[in-house]
Amino acid sequence: MRVLVVEDEPKLAELIRHGLRKRGMSVDVAGNGESASVMAGATEYDLILLDVMLPGVDGFEVCRRLRSQEVWSPTVMLTALDDVEDRIRGLDSGADDYLSKPFSFDELMARVRAVTRRGAPRRPTQLSVGELTLDPAARTVERNGEPLPLTSRELSLLELFMRRPGEVLSRFELLEHAWDNAYEHRSNVIEVYIGYLRDKLGRETIETVRGAGYRLRT
Ligand code: CA
Questions:
Q1: Model confidence, pTM
Q2: What is the pLDDT of residue 89?
Q3: CA nearest 28: which of 51, 12, 48?
Q4: Which of 14, 52, 112, 179 pairs as cysteine with 59 (C-beta 3.0–4.6 A)?
């Protein structure tokens, strides 16, 4: 396993490198955000340990950049700030997990095992299909950069389609993922909400596939 450690404190960087090497990993170290971005873009790392507080470009920005450059290496953020806001920012910028400093090496290794088990599939923080961009964290949708006013339920429904563009989704799948058991199912609730989405996105955006369901045109 090839690991990139991004850490500006040389002592801590060396400690982490030493610990990982002892466990058979190959480790490169970047001391700042700029070199981290370059290195992670050039080598397909199996794991990135990314400090948040870095001189210049911080860890959040490094993570955002890498994800926008389609670099999907599993990433664990290391933060000195035991701050909920920071953890949220880290995860929303595309990190897979976080660990607050000081951390136990055993816990770090457990998190590393957990995130690397999931592999490195494409997992953008924002969904883009055609002219539409949906941000699941901010709960916003834009068309060509113009915000679209969707209700929460409409947005959830659109998110399902945008996660599987071009695929036919059955009424059952849509119900199962966008509604919960507490909701009193009207038999035509899907049709009603597809209608709302079509009114706001344009009728041609969502296609009816007879006998099968609905499909988001890509
Ligand atoms: Ca630091």
A1: 0.84
A2: 92
A3: 48
A4: 52
The pair of structure tokens assigned to 81 is 């700030």
How close is the Cα of 121 to the center of ligand 1, in Å? Answer: 28
- What's the Cα-to-Cα distance from 190 to each of 37, 51, 74, 172, 208, rounded to whole Å? 44, 45, 36, 9, 12
Q: Running DSSP on this structure, what letter comes out for residue 130?
A: T
Give all strands of the β-sheet with 2-6 in edge-to-edge order: 26-30, 2-6, 47-51, 75-79, 97-100
Which two tokens mark 74?
A: 């599993």
Cβ atoms within 10 A of the Cβ of 85, count? Answer: 8
- Angle value at C-alpha 93, between 92 and 96, nearest 5 degrees: 75
**29 CA → ligand 1 middle, Å:** 13
Alpha-carbon distance 8 to 154, whole Å? Answer: 44
Distance 207 CA to ligand 1 centre (A): 50
* pLDDT tens for each residue of 185-204: 667 889 999 999 999 999 99
Contact assessment for residue 76 and residue 50, using Cβ atoms and an 8 Å cutoff: yes
Quick one: pLDDT at residue 23? 94
* Ion ligand 1: residues, Cβ under 5 Å: 8, 51, 53
Angle at 50 between CA 163 and CA 55, to 5 degrees: 120
Q: What's the CA gap between 66 and 61, in Å, rounded?
A: 9
Dihedral, CA atoms, 13, 16, 19, 20, nearest 10 degrees? Answer: -100
